[in-house]
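FAQ: What does a ligand-bound record look like?

Like this one, built around CO-5-methoxybenzimidazolylcobamide:
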Amino acid sequence: MSDFNKLADTVFRGDFGGAAQITKELIDSGAEPLAIINQGLIAGMDIVAPKFKAGEMFVPEVMMAARAMATGMELVKPLINDVDIPSKGTVIIGTVAGDLHDIGKNLVAMILESGGFKVIDIGVDVSVEKFVEAAKQYNPQVIGMSALLTTTMVAMKDTIDALTEAGLRKNLKIIVGGAPLSQEFAGQIGADGYAADAMAAKELCEKLAV
Ligand code: B1M
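The answer part, i.e. the structure of the complex:
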């Protein structure tokens, strides 16, 4: 097994220590930082993603794998310019106002990041104003909102309306997700898309962030 394959395997198994060690060894041996990212760290998450979709891996395992990938990324990132890191686009993600649930949102963020998006996570209980400010500041291709409570779903429409009123919708797609939501609800509030889970969110962003 090549060192890149070994690194991918440690990521897949959620082995943080192993991922850090092999990443350091690859850096010391002079391997290209982008090759470490693409052929090792992201390759590991590429094994995880379809298994999660197929129900062969579960949330805690996916989170461990994503953290192992992030551990390696932290070591490699200082060696390359941000502009050199291939990116499919910028996604801002947050849980809407009044809602503190973040496990699903964090999972979506990790899957998007491992899928090649630059993800700016603006946290939980995110006000309408904060979403608008973040859209102005980071100029993302996609804004993703998460809600787990039926009582906070309404904040999604308020946020979409505010982004529209601020004239920010031209080059911006809005996606929503969370257990109580549906495609129908997403359509009613004027979102560009709905994703039922983290993998679907990645596929949707790939379609929308062009
Ligand atoms: Co809360 N809670 N909770 N809770 N909690 C629910 C959501 C609830 C269904 C439990 C129940 O009654 N059966 C219920 C909501 C009822 C309703 O509105 N219909 C509920 C309630 C009522 C509450 C409180 C009001 C309880 C109280 O205090 N009386 C309170 C509210 C606090 C607040 O937010 N203001 C509360 C608090 C909490 C805890 C803090 C204890 C904790 C949250 C911890 C945390 O997130 N850091 C918690 C938890 C853990 C849950 C349950 C048990 C699990 C949620 C979870 O993390 N699931 C939940 C019951 C349940 O869902 N079975 C429940 C795992 C996660 C991976 O799945 O979040 O669905 P999920 O995310 C999925 C998809 O939905 C999707 O992809 C993810 C991965 O596949 N997805 C997106 C999510 N966001 C997306 C965004 C996208 C795309 C896809 O694009 C942007």
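Follow-up question: can I read anything off the structure? Yes, for example: The longest strand covers residues 90-95.
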